[in-house]
Amino acid sequence: LPEIEHVFVFDTAFHQTMTPESYLFPVPMEWYKDYKIRRYGAHGTSHQYVSHRAAELMHRDINELNIITCHLGNGSSISAVKDGKCYDTTMGLTPLEGIMMGTRCGSIDPAIVTTIMKDHNLTPEQMDSLMNKKSGMLGIAGVSDNREIASRAEAGDKKAILVQKMLVHQLTKYVGAFAAAMGGVDAIVFTGGIGENSGNYREAVAANIEFLGTKLDKQKNEIRGEEVEIST
After folding, report:
1. Residue 109 appears among annotated catalytic residues
2. Residue 167: which residues within 8 A CB-CB, separation 6 or more?
3. pLDDT tens by residue, 102-116
4. φ, ψ dihedrals at 67, nearest 5°
5. Against a cut of 0.85, is the pTM above it?
6. Count of CB atoms within 10 A of residue 169's CB?
7. Strand partners, 69
């Protein structure tokens, strides 16, 4: 489209405010200097928008808030937003790191990779495909769509129930870690296909972090796909 103005919006841009202690990995510094190995994050446009929108709805100055944004879908990431800027985020060099996703494994022990590659004589490309396309919810329950996971769990499928428990556990850990890292949290925002439509995850996480001051309004939590404050 040569006659149309083009605009590039980078999904990593919002996360460029992270400081070295957040974006560097504890690997040889030469990797960072020579290959730019660092945490870049993703879903930046989402994390930036929903954190600023939350501040508007709270009638508060975002520069005075600690907000944790949970972008949950087939691809998921969580960000700590301090004073309107990204302080830390779960996705790393690539969108593979962080919380369990539809087909991505999220954070795992790196030695798992070398162990499986050696035992099965896999190429880097094959291992990459396994972690990105055949793991996560799909790897545990055989299906990657959360709607199918929810349906199977309701019917008593043990693997689907396990996926839900694993996701709640990981969400709780990341929210708790980011709250601690920022010295407290003023708001937790859920967005994305799962974040907006799966009240069971929101309710379970809220229950796990009541010590932080969360009090869920269960009736409001049933509302889907709308901007709504689900706390009491």
Report:
1. no
2. 99, 100, 137, 201
3. 999 999 999 999 999
4. -125, 135
5. yes
6. 14
7. 79, 189
